[in-house]
Amino acid sequence: SCDKCEKGKYGEFGATSCAPCDGDGQYADELGLAACKTAQSGYKPSSNRQSVEMCELGTASFGAQDNCTPCNGVGEYADELGLSACKSSPARKKPTSNRQGIENCSPGRYSVGGKTECDECEVGKFSNEGAVGCS
After folding, report:
1. Is 49 left (phi over 0), alpha (psi -120 to 50) or beta?
2. Dist. CA 103–CA 129, nearest whole Å
3. 82-90, long-range: CB within 8 Å, 24+ apart, which pairs?
4. pLDDT, one tens digit for every residue, the chain (135 residues)
5. DSSP reduced 3-state for 2
């Protein structure tokens, strides 16, 4: 009699042994799979490759990847679990330092959006909190 491949492994038809699901983004969450499954966008395989986990806050994945990518590009953040792509900070805001949300620009600073840090107002110009410009 044949044994089914355990979770985290697969066996092609007629194979005499099971192979690990160790390709990019691969996992096996059922017994007896003939092929590995691939993590969808917003997910990554668990460390034992027997299931998938949602991307954490501050990260995202477009799928078929072993890890979720930190949202550390210019103006990027992720304030939800399981995002397929990082978000870009809107006008008047900047990402929080942990990249898990956004916050208003402080008084004397402004942002037109898509920035990691709010710009300082020119000398002699001012802004309130959460400004898109200075006057």
Report:
1. left
2. 10
3. 82/42, 82/43, 82/54, 82/55, 83/42, 83/55, 83/59, 84/41, 84/42, 84/60, 85/60, 86/60, 88/113, 88/114, 89/113, 89/114, 89/115, 89/116
4. 467 899 999 998 888 899 999 999 999 999 999 999 999 999 999 999 999 999 999 999 999 999 999 999 999 999 999 999 999 999 999 999 999 999 999 999 999 999 999 999 999 999 999 999 999
5. coil
Angle at alpha carbon of residue 109, lines to 104 and 114, rounded to 5°? 60
Is residue 87 within 8 Å of 76, Cβ to Cβ? yes
Residue with the two structure tokens 């092929």: 35
How many alpha carbons fall within 13 Å on the CB side of residue 107?
Answer: 2
- The DSSP element (H or E) to which 27 belongs, if any, is strand 26-27
Q: Shortest CA distance to 106 belongs to which of 134, 130, 79?
A: 130
Copy the structure tokens of residue 32: 């007896």
Give CA separation, 113 vs 63, 71, 90, 119, in Å.
27, 16, 4, 10
